[in-house]
Amino acid sequence: MKIQQLITNELRAVFTNHALLLTVFGGVLFYSFLYPLPYAKQLPREQSVVVVDLDGSQLSRRLIRMVDATPQVEIVRQSHSLSQAKELMVREKLAGILVIPEHFYRDLLQGKSPTLSYAGDASYFLVYGTVLEGMMMAGKTLAAEVSVTRLLMSGQAMELAEKQYHAVAIGMHALFNEAGGYVNYVIPAIFVLILHQTLLMGTGILGATQNEMVNNGEKMYWQNTSPFNLLTVRAILFFVIYALLSLYYFGVAFQFYDIARLADMNALAFLSTVFLLSTIFLGISLGTLFPRPELATATALISSLPIIFSSGIIWPESAIPSPIVMAASMIPAIPAMKAYILLNQMGAELQQIQALLTHLALLTLFYGVTAFTLLQVKTKRCRAKMRSL
Amino acid sequence: MPSGERSNKQPSEWHHILHDPWLLSLVSWLPPLCFLVIYLIFSQGLARDLDIGIVDLDQSKLSRKMAANYDASPTLLVKTSYPSPQEGTKALRGGEIYALIIMPVDLEKKTILGQTPKVEVFYNNQFLLIAKLVKSAILSAHSTTVAQVETLKNLSTHTPIIGQAMAAAIPIGSQVTPLFNLNTNYAQFLVSAIIPATWQIFIVMTTVLCLAAEMRRGGLSSWLGSHPVRAILDKLAPYTLLFWLQGISFLLGMFVFLGWPIHGKLSYLIFCQFPTICACQAAGTLIFFLSKNPARSLGLAAAYSAPGLAFMGVTFPATDMTLPARIWRSLLPVSHYIDIQIAQTNYGSPLPLSLPQLRNLAFFIVPGIIALMLARKTARSSQQQNR
User: Fold this and answer.
1) CB B81 within 8 Å of CB B53
2) How confident is the model at residue B206 (pLDDT cuts 50, 70, 90)?
3) Chain B, 312-341: which have a CB under 8 Å from a chain A CB?
């Protein structure tokens, strides 16, 4: 069979398979809107908090106003005792409690270091962090003011006093996702995973549909071509489709969601080549094994959550048991998610992700050979079946 | 379960499950394995020894003491000392370290002279959760150093009493209490949400797959026959039982075997799993009868259930979601279930507080009825064709 015929047949097989088209084009497009949807606000803001003011002084009221003024927290209730505040918190689903102790003002004047109590609902780490950040920021500002006033009273000049309230200052600078937005945190990794999973589904559905046809005794267009040609044509076809979809994700969609795109085009093209090829070969290998197309989708679906959590992006790799890390390293998405983030969101140089690129190149080689071997077995079996009929 | 006369004509659903290795895996070993892997990923609970780098431009006693304080934090590990900020930030970009601490020239001298030198910390905020751990560990290590220095300074200058010297160093003390999740073990909390999300994926997917299997076996019309509603309920009932068994086992695994804290009632949670399963099955059945094609309906099931975790409101609070996101969230049974689970495990709420969630789960009877109506339509139209 001529190579042109093979290409035409392959194109027809892909573009007439509704399940495949729905998964690849529909899935990629649909997920690009659905996944960022819950995180559209980026940061939790104005969390509802109850305050227990046991002091009732001018200073405690000032603190309450300061806490309320922070963008993180909003004081919605005042309560007279801690137990009442806790009850309110459960009933009205509030996020935190601020307790200003009795004699707060007096102790502060006497230089006795009173203690402010901050409590937050630790069930949700983002909420907890936000609430504490807001309350503690207000508390610290007040403490700083007190220190400065005290230094002033002990005879320091205003300028010096402002500088001296701390022995050693610390400046915290967030890099790469400066605002700590949730879209910028999750989406760069998830989009790589979506490309990976839909690619596995697409190649798997194609392979499984043809397995079904072979089992039904249908004649296949590729049964007399060399497996090498079939593999090459199929890989190139999916590569072209996914190169375009990658351009949509890493170009248009990233721009829309305002996600950093620091990588230069060549480096990104290089990374995408090894990522897409290794995934395509893995997908074609798996496609030879599924008897029914829906099982390809099922496999990708089940593996999604374990892949994202074993990637080292959410939870540090050093804290994950090594057998899981080793098993996960066989999945192209694992090194790929990290490599894309380093290159595109953090601005690493190409040689800094060399180890990840080598990893993906080895996976390409390994799954390339696997796919070739499995296709060869498949072609032989298909021919044998035809002869027996 | 099929009743007497039916089981004579057709083999029972248990028979189908046992003879389909893929379906059998989906209802037997695969879900527990998935739950176990997710637990194992987070089993260490706390992240320890996260790599950070330092640039010590002062090389003094104080700077070395500070570096030692950072290293002493169980969360942090000073992995590398870089000769210059350039090399340090390059390593930060390359993902080798999570944070870089730069100690300026004359750190010690300025501290003694009271000129407040500034230590600059650059941390990788791309990995938000890890960044929060690193940031708070650095801040607390820093305040340890500062309190030590200031107490010493205050003792040597104005106030010879240690209590007052400390009070001068820290004018307002702070006490932080994490409520409802006493050990602030976030990993544990995350696992208790990822597992139900995975469970929902399994339920919706298996429901679609078992209906698809019927389509492949002898076609939908012959299976639905003249009693389509009964055919579907008979088919799904054994799975309801199997999923409930899965649900009960992960609850027992987490809150009994591993002994994670639960303030409420386990029995109530087990009870609430039943409507959750039925709701997922209703959604799965509707998805199947909307497309009536095995591969396509599973594609739709994937689109529906895969992003479940993102919408549950555990990673990002539901109250801060936009309206479209909250609508999509309410269409996923597991997001109502997780509210009940958190209310029981963390708050130990009395039962009436969870009634709204139970009511929401009851609303899933609507997709269930629509699915059954679609099935009846399918059965009727094929019967007409036969005539």
Assistant:
1) yes
2) very high
3) 313-317, 319-322, 324-325, 328-329
Residue A303 and residue A320 share a domain: yes
Q: Dihedral (C-alpha) B250, B253, B258, B261: value to the nearest 10 degrees? A: 60
Question: For B48, which of A111, A297, A319 is closest by C-beta distance?
Answer: A319
For residue A175, is it within any domain? no
**Residue A259 forms part of a structural domain:** yes
Range of the domain at A94: 47-164
B363: DSSP letter: T
Are the beta carbons of B159 and B168 closer than 8 angstroms?
A: yes
Distance (Å, whole) CA A321 – CA A325: 7
pLDDT of residue B275: 94
Q: With 90 as the cut, is the pLDDT of residue B196 above it?
A: yes
- Same domain for A69 and A22, yes or no, is no
* Closest CA relative to residue B278, chosen from B325, B224, B226, B241: B241
What domains can be seen in chain B, in order of their start residue? 4-42+185-386 (no CATH), 50-169 (3.40.1710.10)
Which pLDDT belongs to residue A218?
81
Q: Are B92 and B99 in contact (CB under 8 A)?
A: yes
- pLDDT band at residue A157, thresholds of 50, 70 and 90? low
What is the chain B residue with the closest CA to A202? B299
Angstrom distance (rounded) from CA B47 to CA B130: 8
Please report whether residue A111 resides in a domain.
yes
Q: What is the dihedral of CA A70, A73, A77, A79, to 10 degrees?
A: -90
- Assign A175 to helix, strand or coil: strand
Predicted pLDDT of residue B161: 62
Q: Grade residue B4 by pLDDT with cuts at 50, 70 and 90.
A: very low
Coil, helix or strand for A139? helix
Residue A62 or B226, more confident: A62
What confidence score (pLDDT) does residue A224 get? Answer: 79
* A279-314 pLDDT tens trace: 999 999 999 999 888 899 999 999 999 999 999 888
DSSP letter string over B93-134?
HTTS-SEEEEEPTTHHHHHHHT---EEEEEEE-SSHHHHHHH
B233/A239 Cα distance (integer angstroms): 44
Nearest to B126 by CA among A172, A314, A102: A314
Nearest CA in chain B to A123: B181
The pLDDT value given to residue A225: 84
**Is the CB of A18 less than 8 angstroms away from the CB of B296?**
yes
* Cβ atoms of B107 and B58 closer than 8 Å: yes
Residue B5 has pLDDT above 60, yes or no: no
Per-residue pLDDT for B182 more than 70?
Answer: no
ipTM of the complex: 0.87
CA dihedral B185, B186, B192, B195 (to 10 degrees): -130
Query: Taking CB atoms and an 8 Å cutoff, what residues of chain B touch A188?
Result: 126
**Which comes out higher in pLDDT, residue A360 or A90?**
A360
Name chain B contacts of A55, Cβ cutoff 8 Å: none
CA distance A358 to chain B (A): 16
Is A119 within 8 Å of B178 when comparing Cβ atoms?
A: yes
Alpha carbon distance A57, A63 (integer Å): 10
State the total domains in chain A: 2
Q: What tokens were used for B61?
A: 């006693």
**Residue A246 sits in the same domain as residue A382:** yes
Query: Cβ(A270)–Cβ(A357) under 8 Å?
Result: yes
Chain B residues inside the 8 Å CB shell of A316: 47, 50, 130
User: Quick one: A143 and A281 in the same domain?
Assistant: no
Boundary residue ending a domain (A97, A129, A164): A164
Asked if A318 and B145 come within 8 Å (Cβ–Cβ), the reply is no
Q: pLDDT band for position B164 (50/70/90)? A: low
